């Protein structure tokens, strides 16, 4: 049966993401990605020279989006801690599947090159937006807890949170942001 889609690069990224989420980045081969698409490995190599190049291509939109979010927050006069955390939560949620697929695989993190330093840079810039240009060591430690926890919650959780883990209409974004504000030792409202 002939293939119906025409954007092979997008199909490769989609299939790779599914396999990375299922098996992990390290355990997934380019052969498995090609087989999942019903194309030859040579056809896959036509689009991506290596698994690392494929991952870099998949990560680029997330990096661009995160950088844009942080830059826009920095340009916003009088930005509040709540708005900073909400905007960052939303950015991470948009790329949650990709985060989840690679963050648990330390080998993938090594293949990401500048991604880990970029995440630390964002955290530092968000910290300064919340606490000012010269945050204390205490504030830095709280930011690690708050921003890291917010990021993890945005990646791993569903859209709604219930007492038994099922959705009951509770806005998870609000719950997470309020928790991050408390972790920063700031008022939740």
Report on the architecture of this protein.
The N and C termini lie far apart (57 Å). 26% of the residues are buried. The chain has 189 residues and is mainly α. The mean pLDDT is 86. The protein has helices spanning 8-23, 30-37, 41-47, 51-75, 81-94, 96-103, 106-111, 115-131, 137-156, 172-183, and strands at 160-161, 170-171. The chain contains 10 helices and 2 strands; from the N terminus they run H-H-H-H-H-H-H-H-H-E-E-H. The longest helix has 25 residues, at 51-75.
Secondary structure layout:
Elements: H1 8-23, H2 30-37, H3 41-47, H4 51-75, H5 81-94, H6 96-103, H7 106-111, H8 115-131, H9 137-156, E1 160-161, E2 170-171, H10 172-183
Antiparallel strand pairs: 1-2
Helix pairs in contact: 1-2, 1-4, 1-6, 4-5, 4-8, 5-9, 5-10, 8-9, 9-10
In short:
The chain is built from ten helices and two strands; from the N terminus they run αααααααααββα. The protein is mostly helical. It comes from Nocardiopsis endophytica.
Give the helix/strand class.
Answer: mainly alpha
Mean pLDDT, nearest integer? Answer: 86
Regions with little confidence, pLDDT below 50 for 5+ residues: none
Count of distinct strands: 2
Continuous helix count: 10
Helix amount: over 70%
What portion of the residues fall into strands of 2 or more residues? Answer: under 5%
Give the overall silhouette: elongated
The largest sheet has its strands arranged as 1-2
Span of the ends, CA to CA: 57 Å
Report the C-alpha radius of gyration, rounded.
19 Å
Query: Could you describe the largest sheet, including whether it forms a barrel?
Result: 2 strands, antiparallel
What is the H/E order?
HHHHHHHHHEEH
């Amino acid at each position: 049966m002939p293939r119906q889609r025409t954007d092979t690069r997008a199909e490769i990224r989609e299939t790779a993401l599914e396999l990375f989420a299922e098996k992990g980045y390290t355990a997934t081969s380019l052969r498995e990605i090609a087989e999942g698409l019903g194309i030859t490995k040579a056809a896959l190599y036509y689009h991506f020279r290596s698994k690392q190049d494929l991952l870099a291509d998949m990560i680029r939109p997330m990096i661009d989006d995160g950088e844009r979010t942080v830059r826009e927050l920095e340009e916003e006069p009088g930005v509040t801690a709540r708005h900073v955390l909400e905007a960052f939560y939303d950015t991470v949620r948009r790329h949650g599947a990709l985060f989840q697929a690679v963050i648990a695989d330390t080998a993938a993190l090594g293949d990401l090159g500048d991604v880990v330093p970029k995440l630390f840079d964002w955290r530092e810039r968000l910290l300064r937006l919340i606490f000012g240009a010269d945050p204390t060591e205490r504030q830095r430690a709280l930011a690690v807890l708050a921003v890291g926890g917010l990021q993890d919650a945005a990646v791993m959780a569903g859209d709604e949170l219930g007492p038994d883990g099922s959705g009951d209409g509770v806005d998870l974004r609000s719950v997470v942001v309020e928790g991050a504000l408390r972790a920063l030792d700031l008022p939740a409202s």
